[in-house]
Specification:
The chain has 192 residues and is of the alpha/beta class. It has helices at 50-55, 66-76, 98-101, 128-136, 148-156, and strands at residues 17-19, 42-48, 84-88, 119-121, 140-143, 170-175, 183-191. The protein has one domain: Putative cyclase (Glucose Oxidase, domain 1). It is 20% helix and 19% strand. The protein has a seven-stranded mixed β-barrel. A hairpin with a 7-residue loop joins strand 6 and strand 7. The longest helix has 11 residues, at 66-76. InterPro entries: KFase/CYL, KFase_sf.
Length: 192
């Protein structure tokens, strides 16, 4: 009997991936220590800021502000507790142009106090103060989310987000589980 098998090598923090809290907190959870309840069938919200990003004189310097979160909540209702927040910046349009895509210099702390969720999803990895803030609180990050625009388009086809209730959006965050890992590639499944 014959069989097929392959070997592969990859970085923990490439493509769509989860940053475990230990990535910026030496006492944080590793990837396998993040409770499944924080990743399986969790509530989510998508904050769409791409219009603000690209109407800015310096799109690569855009930062998520409290006003963006409050605007989202005024249109779609309060973000449910323990939600994963997906921030749709539209920056993925520059993938795979490394120079443009990785040139984002986002480094604000201004939106952190209002965010108190088990996960945060952004389109960049350059915001180190936010990484530290979340890592200290055992909150994971998800970066380089592929096809987030397709999720946003699908849920918006039903009218408002998921029939008017952002709490109807749910995620399965499925990272590769590697013992001791500071992060790992992930598949993100969304449904309403």
């Amino acid at each position: 009997m014959e069989y097929a098998t392959y070997s592969f090598c990859m970085a923990e923090h490439g493509g769509t991936h989860v940053d475990a809290p230990i990535h910026f907190n030496e006492n944080g959870w590793t990837l396998v220590e993040i409770p499944d309840s924080h990743m399986i069938d969790v509530p989510a919200a998508i904050i769409d800021v791409q219009e603000d990003v690209f109407s800015s004189p310096s799109p690569d310097a855009f930062t998520l502000q409290v006003q963006h979160i409050l605007k989202h909540e005024s249109q779609h209702g309060k973000i449910p507790s323990k939600s994963v927040v997906l921030v749709h910046t539209g920056w993925s349009r520059f993938w795979p142009d490394k120079q443009t895509y990785l040139g984002w210099t986002n480094s604000t702390n201004s939106s952190k106090p209002i965010l108190n969720f088990p996960g945060y999803i952004g389109n960049n990895g350059g915001n180190l103060p936010v990484h530290v803030f979340f890592g200290e609180r055992q909150i994971y990050n998800i970066e380089n989310v592929a096809n987030l625009h397709l999720v946003l388009n699908a849920v918006n086809k039903k009218g408002k987000l998921c029939d008017g209730f952002s709490s109807n959006l749910r995620l399965f965050v499925l990272p590769i589980k590697i013992t001791g890992a500071t992060g790992g590639p992930a598949r993100i499944l969304a449904y309403c």
